[in-house]
């Protein structure tokens, strides 16, 4: 019964978030994403995510990782939020390189590729540990919710999405997060 209610709440919360999500910005270069990624707010978020993940990896995993699923899931979700940002940058670089201008001549593109590789490796490692140690029926929904929340938070911080939203849209998104 809890699984069914949990799944329904995940769907209802996700629909609330998606229905009131801001329109996506048109990005025309990797340099433009680099500009957003080097803003103070996102640098602080990135540092908190990396330091938080390192703390969990080097301290919490040894103490309680085998007993508390959230340790592994938090590592995956924190790294996942940075992965999504970087994958978007790499995808834009590929799209632009195939259509008009080579984006792989810029150091920023290679930095984003490096971040994708490192974050994906960390995610896969700790997601596998979570799935090996705990029931998949519990790991999957918790990971889905935490990953989604942190990814949306990272995007909101990086692109400052709340600036273009009305109070109603922000309130509805917050209700979706709570749900």
UniProtKB/TrEMBL annotation:
TM ranges are: 40-61, 70-93, 105-126, 138-159
What's an example of a GO molecular-function annotation for this chain? magnesium ion transmembrane transporter activity
Membrane-topology annotation of the record: Multi-pass membrane protein
Q: Report the subcellular localization.
A: Cell membrane; Early endosome; Membrane
Q: Which UniProt keywords apply?
A: Cell membrane, Endosome, Ion transport, Magnesium, Membrane, Transmembrane, Transmembrane helix, Transport
Query: What binding partners and quaternary form does the record give?
Result: Homodimer.
Functionally, this protein is described as follows: Acts as a Mg(2+) transporter. Can also transport other divalent cations such as Fe(2+), Sr(2+), Ba(2+), Mn(2+) and Co(2+) but to a much less extent than Mg(2+).
> Which named protein is this?
Probable magnesium transporter
Organism, by scientific name, is Aegilops tauschii subsp. strangulata
Upper taxonomic classification of the species? Eukaryota, Viridiplantae, Streptophyta, Embryophyta, Tracheophyta
